[in-house]
Design brief:
The protein is an alpha+beta fold. It has a domain at about 5-10 and about 35-110. It is built from 4 helices and 5 strands, in the order αααβββαββ. Strands 1, 2, 3, 4 and 5 form a 5-stranded antiparallel β-sheet that branches. A hairpin with a 7-residue loop joins β1 and β2 (about 55-60). The N and C termini lie far apart (about 45 Å). About 20% of the residues are buried. The model has no long low-confidence stretch (mean pLDDT about 90).
Length: about 120
């Protein structure tokens, strides 16, 4: 799922003064560290401060991940997990390490999809 419309709406509210910059530039220290160590650089400038390119951080969630659920992972780690783990969701957040802007931009499902059980004939 793509969250571009929600992002545009939030930025329009900031520019119109209905939402303060402090309300949208509120990334916590854990997210900022995840951006530093697990993030993927992008070519897109921060839509709020325009001082640096946003970093994309991917968070993984799912029962099949065990204790890894709820952690940030690099794209390479997600690919490896998807090849050997059951279905899980990935949430990609863009974050600016300068002004602390952050927004969910995309989510998707990864991992091995369980094989469908064959249809059984009803006993007559």
């Amino acid at each position: 799922m793509d969250y571009a419309l929600a992002k545009r709406s939030k930025l329009a509210e900031v520019r119109a003064g209905r939402v303060s910059v402090d309300e949208v530039c509120d990334a916590d220290p854990y997210l900022l560290r995840a951006a530093q160590f697990h993030g993927l650089g992008s070519e897109q400038a921060c839509p709020v401060c325009r001082k640096e390119q946003v970093t994309l951080v991917s968070w993984i969630f799912g029962k099949s991940l065990g204790r890894a659920s709820g952690s940030a992972r690099t794209p390479a780690e997600i690919t490896r997990l998807a090849a050997r783990t059951g279905e899980f969701s990935v949430h990609v957040v863009e974050v600016c390490r300068t002004c602390r802007w952050n927004h969910l931009i995309r989510s998707y499902v990864a991992g091995l999809v369980p094989a469908a059980e064959p249809h059984r004939r009803a006993a007559k």
